[in-house]
User: Fold these one by one.
Assistant:
Number 1:
Amino acid sequence: MEGKQEIRRTEDENHEVEKSGERKQCDHEHEHEKEQKEQHPLPLMALNHVSRLCRSVKDSMEFYTNVLGFVVIERPHAFDSFDGAWLFNYGIGIHLVQSQDEQRLPSDKQGLGPMDNHISFQCEDMEAMEQKLKDFGVKCMTRTVEDKDNNTSIDQLFFNDPDGFMVEICNCENLKLVPASALGKIRLPSCRARKQS
């Protein structure tokens, strides 16, 4: 009888050791997965395009090509079921889509407010850009924001495209990017990464 109990105790101990080993293996695999996720951020590279609804694709194309220097690129035939155009420059695309519903477009085509939705383009010569806007008769609002903590300032130009969507031109590159929390998680384009270091 004692022999059977001894064998059973040994089997139970072996079973517990196996279970403990499985738990350790599971914990180890979980830690490994966690490390991999931290080492391999999302496979995102950059902003690809901004899509804009238009009252007139033709008018918007003229604005973005003449005023902002975008280039019309070929749009795949798969998108021929609706009127639109694809533009590209500065590493970003703008996709124009003919609106079928006036209610979806901004009602105020003249209002400018820096605290409203807008897209922003980095600029290396703010004076030249302001002059270009004046040459095209584009009404704009200018402002300078002082960053006393970093002893620098940011110049901004705000204006609307033909449909009332706001656009900003700035020299925000003057500001150094400092992560508020997720230290080391910011992925910069290589040219921006060199400037930050």
Note: The longest strand covers residues 152-160.
Number 2:
Amino acid sequence: MTDRELLELIFTEITGLKAGQERLEGEIVGLRAGQERLEGEIVGLRAGQERLEEGQQRLEARQQRLEARQQRLEARQQRLEARQQRLEDIVTRIENDHGRKLEALFDGWKQNTEQLKRHGEILERIESKLEKHEVEIKVIKGSKNISM
């Protein structure tokens, strides 16, 4: 191989190397652009993740408030149930007391009715005797008037 051929071969190789280097530099520029795009997307993902975490924190705070309200409602419900039980006990006691009182009143009414009935019978007997006595008095007065 001659010097010229060797130089041409070296030149060809160097030209190929330069073309390869330029292609690699283009690919590096593309890779850098892709990397910057990915880094931008990562920044966007991180911002989205932060928004999601903030939203989750707000949801957790709301859930805690709801749980606190639920506990207050349960406490109120227990108080209402206790009041209802007391009212039911009071109503039962009133019903029992009134039942006994009504029974006593009915017994008294029954006794009064029986007493009035007995008094009515006695009054009828007295009236009957009174009528007899009136007749007897008239007879006696009538016989005195005749004898005089």
Note: Residues 3-147 form the longest helix (145 residues).
Number 3:
Amino acid sequence: MRHKMMIMIVISILSLCNFDYLDNMDVFRKFKDSHGNFKASLVGDVRGMLRLYEAAHLRVDGETILDEALAFTTTYLEPMATQFSSQLVVGVYFEPGYGLARRILTKVIAISSIIDEIYDAYGTIEELELFIIAIERWDISAIDQLPA
């Protein structure tokens, strides 16, 4: 339950930052201990750490807490990324006969990444709800309900 709370807080903060409603980054202080360090318990929450990492990239000059959040999350996420990426390379179509599967997988990942960026950066809540419905239906006719 704690990690879901962290994810929701960070997502809310990201949303507020994206729409310029939040100027004060003191809300991140709840993730720090009495010594001013980010809490060790955050490390076990990979999703929450990723969200905090994403939020830290929205920082501007003078937001030291987000600079600290970036350093903290990078320290713990980079080793995880190298560990997981080596496992993925071994597990996903590594034999020469699977070249087509690798190309298809690469395209799916690229499209997913583009959709994720568009979703995060450009949509209003109403547009994104329509977009989610269209994706869930996986029907080309759903494009007619999407905004131009």
Note: The chain has five helices and no strands.
